[in-house]
Amino acid sequence: MGFYYIGPIDGHDIDSMVSVFNNAKDINYDGPILIHVKTEKGKGYSFAEKSEDKFHGVSKFNIKTGEQEKSKSNTPSYTKVFANSLIKHAEKDSKVVGITAAMPSGTGMDLFGKKFPERMFDVGIAEQHAVTFAAGMATEGYKPYAAIYSTFLQRAYDQVVHDVAIQSLPVRFAIDRAGLVGADGPTHAGSFDITYLSTLPNFVVMAASDEAELVRMINTSMDINDRPSAFRYPRGNGVGVQLPEITEKIELGKAKIIKEGKKVAILNFGARLQECILASENLIKKGIDISIIDARFAKPLDENLIWQIATEHEVLITIEEGSIGGFGSHVSQFLSEKNLLDSNLKFRSMILPDRFIDHDKPELMYKFANLDSIGIENKILDTLNSKVLIKKSN
Question: Is 127 considered catalytic here?
């Protein structure tokens, strides 16, 4: 292929590495130069050397014991809720299989693999292959769950379109790390999956507002056998609600009314629901009556309920942890087609800003994005043409 090849060389021998790179700079060759470097993960630190997929990105840890600082939350992580729910389904249905792309512990597939070692497939860092592999299994009557971080599923978009969506194959996508992800920063933020999946024909796209809704969405996906489906959920721990049984499901495209009011309707998609509730509590004190709806589905939309709230409220606000072109855009398209935007309705869509957000604590990232309770409250007051705006805390 025309490469000038050097190697393999020991990537832990710094003196040799410096010498090789200096020599490579002076090579007079009209073509690509390939330096093949071999390294061992965690070299020199036994705890990292023995760990197959941890110590990739770490929180604070004890250097003597290798023990990482754990969350003090008493609620389970969304990842663990997903894994435990899938295990329960797999105990009853031998066609359930799990797929991950080199992220077994990050996606909870390590727990699934311990229970069902013959039904969990780690394909390595090859998300494209993971998706096509899942499509192939779906053609043979299996129920594949491809557990992939939102940001990494971007790598396999071509396969999602051509190998899954066009054939309308029932691959289930468990989209972890949806939304902003704190210390993992802009490279790992799940900002685009709502947009890039909702635009595809034949897809069911769901987002969990809490861990109980996540269980219901997993349950629901088990019966979606004629097309692909995806459910997204955030990094971190749940909000502390009781988990339902694995028999409890959601009607496709059916939103959930959380609170009924008359003046403003908040149509939430995803894990900002608790912030919506906080915003509504403050607005009620100002005499502003709020309805809150958990949309659950970006596709298919609950068109009947959206029609109802659009005709019964002065303001309609959609809220999502995603980029432009996602849930709010689909709602706007529906309202436009039904001529509801030509009425007295004031419609606004709250999305992530058009920029990559630097790493920080998640609550500060959402504050920057104006998707915290104060940002939501301000947006509603501004839409109502109120002159009273809340000061953002320092």
Answer: yes
